[in-house]
Amino acid sequence: MEKLLVLGIGNTLLTDDGVGVHAAEILWKEEWPENVTVMEAGTFTQDIYVLFQGYDRLLVLDVIHAEHKPGTIYELTEDDIRSNKKQRVSIHDIDMLDSLQMCEMRCGKRPKMEIIGMQPHDITTWNIGLSEVCQGQFDNFVSHARKRINEIIAEMN
Q: Exposed site from 58, 74, 77, 152, fewest CB < 10 Å?
C-alpha cells in the first residue's frame, strides 16, 4: 500500500510563515486512512529528509513566494518548482528538492512531492497568527489541502 506524508512547514512566530503548520494542525485532527500521515515540521532543516523515508507521496503545505497577491493559493508539482526558481520551496536553510535528493541518496528512493502554498503578506513581523489577508484565505487553503489529500488517496488505491 502506498503511503502519503502531508507536511506542514514554517515558523508560527513569523505571521504568515506559519500557514502550513497551522493547516497541518487542523488536518492532523481529522480522520485519515492508515496510509496517510499528517505532521508539522516547523522549520526543521538539514535532516528533514529522514521524515520522507517510507513514503511514496509528499504533500507540502507552506508559503510560496511567487509575487502574486497575498492570500493567493497555489498547487505546484516538482516540475513547476524546477522550472521556476521564483517558486522554490525552502525550509530556511535547505531547499525541498535538495532534501528529496538526500532522501533518495540515503534510502534508495524518495516520495513524489507536490506543494500547496499561499502567497504571504508578512513573514517578517514577530506575531503568532496570520495576517488579516491570509487569515481570510486560510479556510480555502485548508480546503484545498483536504481536497488534494483525498485525490492523492484515490490515486494511490
A: 77
> How far apart (Å, rounded) are the C-alpha atoms in residues 116 and 22?
13
What value does the mean pLDDT take over residues 96-112? 86
Going by DSSP bridges, is the β-strand pair 94-95/90-91 parallel, antiparallel, or unpaired? Answer: antiparallel
User: Which whole number is the average pLDDT over 33-51?
Assistant: 86
DSSP 8-class letter at 14: B
Return the SS3 of 87.
helix
Pairing of the two strands 36-42 and 57-63: unpaired
Domain that holds residue 109: 4-156
CA distances (Å), 110 to each of 49, 78, 100, 105, in order? 9, 12, 6, 9
For the domain that residue 72 is a member of, what is the CATH number? 3.40.50.1450
